[in-house]
Amino acid sequence: MRITLVGSRHFGVTTLNMLREHSVAVVRVVVADAEDRLAATARAAGIEVVVQANPKLVVASEIAPDTDLIITAHSHARIGKDALASAKFGGIGYHPSLLPRHRGKAAVEWTIKEGDPIAGGTIYHLADRMDAGAIAAQDWCFVKKGETARELWERALAPLGLKLLADVIDYIKVHKALPAKVQDEQFATSAPSLS
Questions:
Q1: Which pLDDT tens digits describe the chain residue by residue (195 residues)?
Q2: Paired residues of 123 in beta bridges
Q3: Sheet harboring 135-142: ordered strands across?
Q4: Mind listing the pLDDT tens digit for each residue in 143-182?
Q5: Apex CA 21: angle with CA 75 and CA 123, to 5°?
Q6: Which domains does the chain have, with CATH numbers?
Q7: DSSP assignment of the chain, as one string?
């Protein structure tokens, strides 16, 4: 399976490492910033790095030829329709909430702010609307009393994301398709900016 990884920072790096350990070919890494640690890690591993022309949008020309699946890992860029159409299975991303709850940025912070006793993560199909595509995999965890968003992310949600991504990759290898369950819009919440 040929993967184009779009991402940044620590979660981008840990996702890249997980994919390489999972025996899939990461053929290109797409980043918004050439100096990002994901770009440096990819270059050190001999993986082609492309810097997005527009930091808010990834276009088809930035996706590696013959890509089977686009994966986003800590990317705030929208993956354009043309880019998704260029990959055999389209694209998936990880969102650190139980979608459709807490769509948008700052999902972990909103989990804490709302006092949710349960948090979770979702692998979802990339679509026109941010965080609104079909669910490919989902799991949950408890939130510890007094836990900060960063503590929850590091303790449970980041590792959960890597596990769910690996599960979806295994599913694709066996079934040659992506699992998909439509999100129930009646439960959708949108996380406004915390700034």
A1: 999 999 999 999 999 999 999 989 999 999 999 999 999 999 999 999 999 999 999 999 999 999 999 999 999 899 999 999 999 999 999 999 999 999 988 999 999 999 999 999 999 999 988 888 999 999 999 999 999 999 999 999 999 999 999 999 999 999 999 999 998 887 887 655 554
A2: 94, 137
A3: 48-51, 25-31, 2-7, 69-73, 91-95, 118-125, 135-142
A4: 999 999 999 999 999 999 999 999 999 999 999 999 999 9
A5: 40
A6: 2-95+123-140+157-182 (3.40.50.170)
A7: -EEEEEE-HHHHHHHHHHHHHTT-EEEEEEES-TTSHHHHHHHHTT-EEEE-SBTTEE-GGGSPTT-SEEEEES--SEE-HHHHHTSTT-EEEEESSSTTTTBSTTHHHHHHHTT-SEEEEEEEE--SSTT-SPEEEEEEEEPPTT--HHHHIIIIIHHHHHHHHHHHHHHHHHHSS---B---GGG--B-----
Instruction: Match 């591993």 to its residue by tokens.
Output: 45
